[in-house]
Each structure stands twice: as structure tokens, then as C-alpha cells.
Design brief:
The complex is a heterodimer of chains A (about 475) and B (about 100). Chain A has about 475 residues and is of the alpha/beta class. Chain A folds into two domains: about 280 residues, no CATH class; about 55 residues, no CATH class. In chain A, about 25% of the residues lie in helices and about 35% in strands. In chain A, the strands form three sheets. In chain A, strands 5, 6, 8, 10, 11, 13, 15, 16, 18, 20 and 22 form an eleven-stranded mixed sheet that branches. In chain A, strands 4-3-7-9-12-14-17-19-21-23 form a ten-stranded mixed sheet. In chain A, helix 1 runs antiparallel to helix 2, helix 10 crosses helix 11 and helix 11 crosses helix 13. Chain B is mostly beta strands. In chain B, strand 6 and strand 7 form a beta hairpin. The chains are: A alpha/beta (about 475), B mainly beta (about 100). At the A-B interface, loops of A face loops of B.
């Protein structure tokens, strides 16, 4: 059933495949030693507690073995000694757009940031390589008392909050890649929303990899205090190059009583990137957390957004979609832990594999004893476009509480002949009809995205589908 | 009630742990703040043995995924565990340690 994955060819016309000539201020030598970890911390001028956190995490990273599950063939291609773990491109986080260096501006121009900034964003943290170089928090956020900055700044300016919450959701010991991130993290976003505050506009960030063999290790921490509400969006692109790159982010969300956090991601890394991410949220009493997770790019993605429902009445929703084209493996899923009564969760996962791509859904729903009245529903659908492509679904349910309601449904299909015939009889050619049907398959997800993402996603899907017919 | 000693107090110095089996139950003895505490030697997250973890003060960290428990009460202090670990009553008589499972 599993197919042999072909190596991705270098596609000349990949529209995001530009590559600025490298002119970095500092780039760590390849590989990882305690000295390099110390140097990263020193370059960031970090307090002692963060330096110790990193060094301890590095020890844990060394002590943990590689996973023995998942796509071990692809994972074995990662050469940890062949990666630059830290690159710093400017000296300080920028405040005004005019101050940003030209070549970085060009990069952002192509990613559309100025446009978006003019339109309707509240604040943008843009990460170039491993540093946040452009940061503009609107006055509104300041007035509301919302803290939104890059993680490096947060460590220095808000140490009490960071120390209180960092690594309480994902400890460095959680897995090898969380340990790696904890040792070499750089950039990422920090958000704190005070009690009762609702942030009306989505907060956003962009980031990309440029240097060959450059790893990206963002660390994001979002805390919504009691009754607060925030929506955060991240979307990323990367230029083309031929040797593999590693992206290992850690995202921790904490939704206090009655709070609500929505976290939207569109991942579109180029096809040589290993994207191994640990994302987890805690939802306290009557809080809500929603992960909206889109996976289009990368060579191998392993990502299982998780929600721990720790307080009574907490609610979690995970909407995830994955598209795997030639040479890609999207190994994604969702985890929900019900640890309190009357908690509810919904997981909806849809994936498409085409041109030899492979999608895997790996999910967990666990209902602990005492989580009386817990309700959960999992739906995973896979669409396999052709005979070379594959899809695996591995849902796990561990139900330790009888007074709970658990639903699960899964389907695997190919494009319906009738749907195709109907669309074509309306004048669409087969390629357009197929793209339309696949976009319809993903509609549950696309309609949750802000306009510019929805448009880009539809276009991306159409691009991916080209050549899948005939 | 186990009426035989499972360890000598000298085997559990301050800041250290000792794994013993009491009537078929895997128990971890932990010495902190001058007292000996007993918890089940099984992490409630994924079943790893807690004796492989590190005891700092009265907090033990599971080596497998980083969950943390307070050895005095069994309470969870850090994810990914969510269920407290069972604790057992410890009696010290002379240099003998008794555990009631």
C-alpha cells in the first residue's frame, strides 16, 4: 500500500523560490555543541535562567533517541551536524518600515506584507531567518494592555510572565525535537492578553528560511487571561535550494478560564524542508481553543496540534487539512485530552494525496476517568487522486470514562465520477473541474481563513492539481 | 498493610530516590525536606518508571516526556501528565522504612 517516495525535482518556476544572496551579520558554524548554545544565548544577551534552560534542554536533546515511529526512512536523512542553528540578519528589531534594510524589504514585498499592513492587520512580527526584524505593534494593542512581541524581546522585557508559563505546556523533555527547539530557539511570537480583553483583528507573523541548511526554531507562547479572546495567524514560505533544511517549532497556548484562542497556520515550506513541530494548548474552565492547521508544503511534516481540556466545560476544535504532492509526506493529525467533566471536542481532518504523495492522519482522543459528560467527535477523510499516491489513517481512542460520548468516522475515496461529469457538463475542462472539486473538499477549512489566505490556498491547490489529470 | 520494612533509612538519603516493590506494587521512595515519601513508580502519562527521572526538591520529573509530580501529594505539576500519581503512607521505625500500599 505504501509507495516509494521519489526525490522532489527542483522546480524552476516555483513562484516563491527566490533566494536573496546571503549577507548575514552572524551565522553559527554547523552542528550543535554546548558552546554554540552558550553563544546563541550570549548573542541574544539573555538572562542566566534562559541560558540554563537552553543548556539543560541541549543535554536532554542528546539523551533522547530519534523516533522509531513515523516516516523513519525520511527522518534518517536529517544530519544534525550539517545544520546552522542560528543566523542573525540585523542588529535590532525594527520599529518603522522605513528603517528596514532594503533586501529584507524586497523579501517582504514579495510576501505581500506592506499591502497587508496597509489593509487590516493590527500588528506584524516578521521573522527573517532567526530574528524578528520588523515589529510594529499598533497603538490599539498597547492601549488594551496586550503584549505582542517576539520571544527574544519577551524574555528580557516580560521575564516574570515568560518564566511562569514557558515550557509548562511542552517541557523540553517532551520529545527530541522539543528539546532541540528549547536549546536553540530563536524568534517566534509572545502574546499576552489581559483579562476580559478581546483582540478584534487577527495577529499575524511570517517567517522563512534562506540560508542553505538553515534550521528554523521558533518558540511561540500565547497566554489569554480570563475571558480574553485572540486569534493568531501564521503562514510561511521558503525559497528553493537543494539540501535539506530542518524546521522544528514549539507552540504553547494557554487559555485561562473563559478565554478563547484560535491559532491558524498555513504551512507552505518548499519541498526539501523537514517540518517537525510540537504544538499544544491547555484550555481551562469554559475556555475554548481552536487549531486551524493547513499543511501544503515541506518534504516531511510531523505535526499533531494538541489540546488538553483541563477545566470543566472546556472546548477544543481542530480543523486540519493536508495536501501531499510528489515526494511529500504529510504526517499530521490531532490530539485531544479530556481531563475534566463536560468538555467537548471536534476534530475534522481532510487530506488529499496526488502524484505519489503520502498523507497520514495520526490522532489521539483520550478521556480520563472523571471526565463525565465528555463529548468528542472525530472525522477524517482522505482523497487519493491516483494509483501512485497513498493515505494512512491511524486514529487512537483511549476512553477511560464510560459516561462520555465518542463518535468517529473516517472515509477514503477518489474523485467521484459523477461529480466530475457534472462539472464538466457545465463547461469546465477536466483539470478545472478536478481543482474545483478538491477545493470544495477543503472548503470546511478554507472558509475559516481570512480572505488573502483563502485566495492563496485555493490557488495553491489548483497549482498542485495541475498535471494530475490525464 | 505491609508489616515488613522495605528499606533502611540510610538507603534513601536526602534528595535521592529508591525503587522498591511492596506487595507487587512498584513504589518509589523519595527523600525531600527531611521526610521520606512514597509514590507509585509509574508515570500516569505513558507508564514510564519515575525512578529514571530526576528529583529536585520535592518534584520528580519523568524522564520519558518531562511530566512533573509533587512527591508529597502526587499532584501533577507539569504536562503531559494530567492524572495525579498514587501516594502511599510511609512509617519510619528506627532505621526501617515501612510503606502501606
Amino acid at each position: 500500500m505504501a509507495t516509494q517516495l521519489k526525490t522532489a525535482p527542483i522546480v524552476e518556476d516555483y513562484r516563491h523560490g527566490f533566494h536573496d544572496p546571503e549577507n548575514y551579520v552572524f551565522k553559527s558554524e554547523k552542528g550543535l555543541t554546548p558552546e554554540i548554545v552558550e553563544r546563541i544565548s550570549a548573542m541574544k544577551d539573555e538572562p542566566q535562567w534562559m541560558r540554563e534552560f537552553r543548556l539543560k534542554a541541549h543535554e536532554i536533546f542528546l539523551s533522547k533517541p530519534m523516533p522509531t515511529w513515523g516516516d523513519t526512512a525520511l527522518l534518517s536523512e536529517i544530519d544534525f551536524s550539517n545544520i546552522h542553528y542560528f543566523v542573525k540578519s540585523t542588529d535590532r528589531a525594527e520599529r518603522s518600515w522605513d528603517d528596514v534594510p532594503d533586501d529584507i524589504k524586497r523579501t517582504f514585498d514579495r510576501l505581500g506584507i506592506p499591502e497587508a499592513e496597509r489593509k487590516f492587520l493590527s500588528g506584524v512580527s516578521a521573522q527573517y531567518e532567526s530574528e524578528v526584524v520588523y515589529h510594529n505593534v499598533s497603538k490599539e494593542l498597547d492601549e488594551l494592555g496586550v503584549l505582542f512581541c517576539d520571544m527574544d524581546t519577551a524574555v528580557k522585557q516580560h521575564p516574570e510572565i515568560v518564566q511562569k508559563y514557558l515550557a509548562t505546556v511542552i517541557p523540553p523533555g517532551d520529545n527530541k525535537f522539543a528539546a532541540l527547539n528549547s536549546a536553540v530557539w530563536s524568534g517566534g511570537s509572545f502574546i499576552y492578553v489581559p483579562p476580559g480583553v478581546e483582540v478584534k483583528m487577527p495577529l499575524q507573523a511570517y517567517f522563512r528560511i534562506n540560508a542553505e541548511n538553515m534550521g528554523q526554531f521558533e518558540r511561540t507562547l500565547i497566554i489569554a487571561d480570563k475571558g480574553a479572546k485572540v486569534h493568531y495567524i501564521e503562514g510561511c514560505t521558503a525559497p528553493k535550494f537543494s539540501t535539506s533544511s530542518l524546521h522544528s517549532a514549539v507552540v504553547e497556548l494557554i487559555a485561562m478560564e473563559g478565554a478563547s484562542i484560535r491559532y491558524t497556520t498555513i504551512q507552505n515550506w518548499y519541498r526539501n524542508i523537514f517540518n517537525l513541530v510540537t504544538k499544544r494548548a491547555i484550555a481551562y474552565k469554559n475556555a475554548t481553543v481552536e487549531w486551524v492547521d493547513g499543511n501544503i508544503g515541506s518534504r516531511l511534516t510531523m505535526k499533531y496540534p494538541a489540546i488538553y481540556l483541563m477545566g470543566e466545560g472546556a472546548r477544543g476544535e481542530i480543523l486540519s487539512m493536508a495536501f501531499a504532492g510528489e515526494g511529500q509526506h504529510q504526517d499530521a493529525g490531532a490530539k485531544v485530552i479530556h481531563a475534566a467533566p463536560n468538555t467537548t471536542s471536534v476534530v475534522t481532518n481532510k487530506s488529499v494525496s496526488a502524484h505519489g504523495g503520502k498523507t497520514t492522519y495520526r490522532g489521539l482522543v483520550e478521556i480520563h476517568p472523571g471526565a463525565v459528560g465528555a463529548k468528542t467527535r472525530v472525522k477524517c477523510d482522505a482523497l487519493i487522486m491516483d494509483e501512485e499516491s497513498a493515505s494512512d489513517t491511524k486514529p487512537t481512542m483511549k476512553i477511560h470514562e464510560q459516561r462520555s460520548t465518542v463518535e468517529h468516522e473516517a472515509s477514503v475515496s477518489k474523485i467521484g465520477e459523477e461529480q466530475l461529469f457534472y462539472a464538466m457538463s457545465r463547461g469546465l475542462n477536466e483539470a478545472d473541474a478536478t481543482a474545483m472539486i478538491v477545493n470544495g473538499f477543503f472548503d470546511f477549512f478554507v472558509k475559516e481563513l481570512p480572505m488573502e489566505y483563502a485566495v492563496e490556498l485555493n490557488r495553491l491547490v489548483k497549482m498542485e492539481m495541475e498535471g494530475s489529470v490525464g | 498493610m505491609a508489616d515488613y520494612p522495605v528499606a533502611k533509612t540510610s538507603e534513601v538519603p536526602e534528595g535521592r530516590t529508591l525503587r522498591v516493590v511492596v506487595q507487587g506494587v512498584e513504589v518509589l521512595l523519595c527523600k525531600c525536606e527531611g521526610n521520606v515519601y512514597a509514590i507509585e513508580d509509574v508515570c500516569t502519562h505513558d507508564g514510564a518508571p519515575l525512578d529514571q527521572g530526576e528529583l529536585q526538591g520535592c518534584e520528580i520529573t519523568c524522564a520519558r516526556h518531562g511530566a512533573v509530580f509533587d512527591v508529597r501529594s502526587g499532584a501533577v505539576l507539569a504536562l503531559p501528565a494530567v492524572v495525579p500519581v498514587p501516594t502511599y503512607k510511609v512509617r519510619i521505625v528506627g532505621d526501617d522504612v515501612f510503606v502501606d500500599v
